[in-house]
Design goal:
two-stranded antiparallel ribbon, two-stranded antiparallel sheet, 217 residues
Length: 217
């Protein structure tokens, strides 16, 4: 598998989490050939370089036959060096008062460290099939907000590390586009906010089951 084959993950995560303005075609061309000809801003380029590097970490990790653990999650977040926090890969502290603003309020979970993060990962991997484990990994990391920034990115790439490692034949993307008049990314963000504030994980997982998984090539 190549980084370019992870283009659906990279594009959708960039689009929904970080306002990537580059098209899916420009994203794939950048990943396939390294061409920035169709990348229109420095912010897009920095973001895509980070996401490309995270994708490469996924492939390297899967190729080495290593499992998903807290060290991997920290390593993936540490790769966000151009478009993320001042201290990539380091756990945030409670006294930083870092939260996520949503339409329902501000999500400010307590800070966690290695032991708590590993507990979340272990719990998520008890969720049944590999796809269900991947869903649980993404939701658990996104809700926990372990780092200063890039938590959703880190969560979606951690989930895909598991899928690639286990040869699941699928990638987990962030839903984009319109289906039956519903704008999927808006629906995703609303359901994620409800998972944050009200512990309503089922609606988010149902959406991802229906519109998040994409078959690998």
């Amino acid at each position: 598998m190549t980084v370019a084959e992870l283009s659906p993950v990279i594009y959708s995560a960039g689009r929904v989490f970080d306002d990537l303005s580059a098209s899916s075609e420009a994203t794939e061309e950048f990943l396939r050939a390294g061409s920035s000809m169709f990348i229109r801003s420095r912010a897009d380029l920095a973001l895509l370089e980070d996401l490309r590097d995270i994708a490469q970490r996924i492939l390297d990790h899967a190729g080495a036959g290593r499992g998903v653990d807290a060290a991997l999650v920290c390593d993936l977040n540490a790769t966000i060096t151009r478009s993320g926090p001042l201290h990539p890969g380091q756990f945030r502290r409670d006294d930083q008062s870092i939260g996520v603003r949503t339409r329902y309020g501000i999500h400010t979970p307590p800070a966690i460290e290695d032991v708590e993060l590993q507990g979340l990962i272990t719990g998520a991997q008890e969720s049944g099939s590999v796809r269900e484990q991947a869903l649980s990994l993404f939701v658990a990391i996104a809700k926990a907000q372990p780092f200063e920034d890039g938590n959703k990115r880190t969560g979606i790439f951690t989930a895909n590390t598991l899928l690639v490692s286990e040869k699941a034949g699928a990638m987990l993307t962030v839903p984009v586009g319109v289906v039956h008049g519903v704008e999927l990314s808006g629906r995703f963000n609303d359901l994620l906010a409800r998972a944050y504030l009200f512990e309503e994980d089922d609606g988010l997982k149902t959406l991802l089951r229906a519109h998040g998984f994409v078959a690998t090539r």
